[in-house]
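can u do me a favor
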């Protein structure tokens, strides 16, 4: 099968089928997530005050609603369409699914956002889900016992696992464009200092959403502008050579 045939199969056979199953399983996942509250309401008669539900929803939406938009946009390029379906159904996206998918792409030597990258990300995602469920099951059963036997210093060091993981991801992708990575890192550091100093205190819950929104969309805009200038410079150089 040549490249054109692979592309045609990917776009016309594989992806339509994955979209169909992804949407179906996603809807089933949403419906299943309502089973616990239904059981609480029907079996245990734990019925909430309906008048307070809108206020509770608005409180949650104000704190986390930006993630409903930012996470699909920010992670899609790495995860691909199928990986996105799997990630938002299985959870642990930023601390497990994205790192596993990106490392699978690096190991396979494929670029994110390509057909090959999407397929490899899906494989990495599937493996991470299987291992995650296995380790999580063992952790739930033995986690407390194991942690109680570890020295306090080791237990405290576990709090640095997530920052170390994100640092590794920054280096993995940042090494491809050092100036861009350093610029975005400095921007985020300055922004968090300003938030800490209360410069954006007039914005509700700014610390929760402002850094992510401005970093993602600002980073995309900055990269597009820089690449556009590079393309124009390259085109001008070609015309000059002619």
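np, heres the sequence
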């Amino acid at each position: 099968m040549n490249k054109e045939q692979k592309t045609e199969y990917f776009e016309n056979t594989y992806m339509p089928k994955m979209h169909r199953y992804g949407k179906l399983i996603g809807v089933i996942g949403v419906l299943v997530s309502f089973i616990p509250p239904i059981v609480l309401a029907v079996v245990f008669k734990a019925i909430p005050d309906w008048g307070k539900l809108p206020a509770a929803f608005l409180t949650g939406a104000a704190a986390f609603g930006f993630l409903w938009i930012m996470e699909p946009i920010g992670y899609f390029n790495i995860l691909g369409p199928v990986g996105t379906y799997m990630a938002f159904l299985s959870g642990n996206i930023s601390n497990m699914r994205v790192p596993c998918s990106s490392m699978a792409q690096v190991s396979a030597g494929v670029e994110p956002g390509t057909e090959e990258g999407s397929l490899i990300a899906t494989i990495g995602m599937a493996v991470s889900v299987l291992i995650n469920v296995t380790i999580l099951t063992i952790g739930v059963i033995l986690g407390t016992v194991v942690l109680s036997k570890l020295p306090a210093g080791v237990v405290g060091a576990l709090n640095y696992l997530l920052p170390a993981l994100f640092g590794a991801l920054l280096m993995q992708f940042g090494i491809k464009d050092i100036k861009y990575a350093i610029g975005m890192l400095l921007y985020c550091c300055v922004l968090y200092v300003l938030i800490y100093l209360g410069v954006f205190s007039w914005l509700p819950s700014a610390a929760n959403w402002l850094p992510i929104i401005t970093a993602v969309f600002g980073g995309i805009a900055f990269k597009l502008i820089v690449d556009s200038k590079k393309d124009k410079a390259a085109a001008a150089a070609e015309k000059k050579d002619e």
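The two ends are 39 Å apart (CA to CA). hope that helps!!
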